[in-house]
Design goal:
mainly alpha
């Protein structure tokens, strides 16, 4: 008996990949889910991959994507080689270029981190839950910026500290002085140390 081949889900099926077009930054996640399905369903033909990618989005979006020159384009044959279709990967890059801010290199900005710090500092009512949320959001953005060389470790530490309201920072600073007595006062504390204090 032959093994059964998995099929791609129909358009509105619960397992079909979805992309909320009001959130362009999530486009890369849409493509990741789609590519997982390609592997699961053993789809390797680039033309088929492009057709499926355009199948699970709205009509207007599909029209824009399939209208790209790289959707149906073929490379010019060299010598006696046959013309070949432009790869799915190159077409996907062209689609991503349609949506500024979706590129991996633009996921987070230093300005976004500064805005988070300022917004957190300006909060009037501050709870442990608020502080935990600030820590999680800060970590998500700062870790990405650190990995991509957009900020340095000391800058990360200073910024985290700046986002903590003065009254809470005074308590944290006293606790850190007890927990880390050999820490030089002019060096910023580690983000994790501040959070745990």
């Amino acid at each position: 008996m032959e093994p059964t081949t998995q099929c791609m889900p129909p358009c509105n099926h619960f397992s079909a990949p979805k992309w909320d077009e009001s959130k362009p930054r999530k486009l890369t996640q849409y493509f990741k889910e789609l590519e997982y399905l390609f592997r699961y369903c053993s789809i390797t033909d680039h033309t088929q991959m492009k057709e499926y990618a355009a199948r699970y989005v709205t009509y207007d979006t599909a029209e824009a994507w399939t209208g790209l020159p790289k959707f149906a384009a073929t490379t010019t044959p060299i010598g006696n080689q046959a013309a070949t279709a432009i790869s799915y990967k190159n077409w996907k890059k062209a689609v991503i270029c349609l949506y500024p801010g979706t590129e991996e290199s633009m996921r987070y900005t230093v300005n976004k981190l500064h805005q988070l710090v300022q917004d957190n500092f300006d909060l009037s009512a501050y709870t442990l839950g608020t502080f935990s949320m600030y820590y999680c959001k800060f970590q998500k953005i700062s870790r990405w910026l650190l990995q991509h060389g957009k900020i340095h470790a000391n800058e990360e530490r200073c910024l985290f500290q700046q986002g903590i309201p003065t009254s809470l920072w005074a308590k944290i600073a006293r606790r850190l002085e007890i927990l880390k007595p050999t820490h030089h006062l002019e060096d910023p504390y580690d983000v994790k140390d501040i959070y745990e204090a």
